[in-house]
Design goal:
Elements (H helix, E strand, L loop, with lengths): L1 E2 L3 E5 L5 H9 L1 H7 L4 H18 L3 E6 L5 E10 L4 E8 L8 H14 L6 E7 L3 H9 L3 E8 L2 E9 H6 L4
Antiparallel strand pairs: 1-2, 2-3, 3-4, 4-5, 6-8, 7-8
Helix pairs in contact: 1-3
């Protein structure tokens, strides 16, 4: 469990299946991360659970500390194809523009570079996702390469532990 001033991050579980489907059903959210059927969501959450078991990290549900409401997801995802650990964030539209993505991602970066001992974390952002690009830039990420993820072009941003430490992180 990771906590910040306003948020609590906990591993996603199969109990989050219906919430996952609802989050991705919003057309503005789905524009960059796609939609899921209940079966697809359950399979994705099982894969996330395997990452937690195999790698000691994965995606988290992001909850408001004051109310316990689940407002998004943020965490680390291992991409075998790239040999990279990626940070990702997705929030329900009513919670955009409140700084939650930056707050949650900053805490995940501290965890990744601190206790997990990662040297580099990437952020794969689909073209046109200006809000996520702004979050990545705010956190100190810089463009690494152009690539294709989920059959769509994206810019892969990177942050190294040495750069992160110079910016005041562990």
């Amino acid at each position: 469990m990771i906590t910040t001033a306003r948020l609590r991050l906990r591993p996603l579980t199969e109990n989050d299946t219906d919430w996952w489907v609802r989050l991705h059903a919003d057309e503005e959210v789905a524009r960059f991360v796609g939609t899921y059927t209940r079966e697809q969501a359950a399979a994705r959450l099982q894969a996330i659970h395997r990452q937690w078991t195999d790698r000691g990290h994965g995606l988290c549900a992001v909850e408001l500390r004051d109310t316990g409401e689940t407002i998004g997801r943020c965490g680390l995802n291992w991409w075998e194809r790239f040999g990279e650990t990626e940070i990702g964030w997705t929030f329900a539209r009513p919670h955009w523009g409140h700084g939650y993505a930056t707050e949650a991602a900053r805490a995940v970066l501290d965890w990744g570079f601190g206790p997990l001992g990662l040297d580099r974390i990437t952020a794969m952002i689909h073209h046109g996702n200006t809000a996520s690009t702004a979050v990545a830039t705010r956190l100190g990420f810089t463009p690494l390469r152009e690539d294709t993820v989920l059959d769509r072009p994206c810019t892969v941003y990177a942050l190294d532990v040495s750069t992160s430490a110079r910016r005041g992180r562990p």
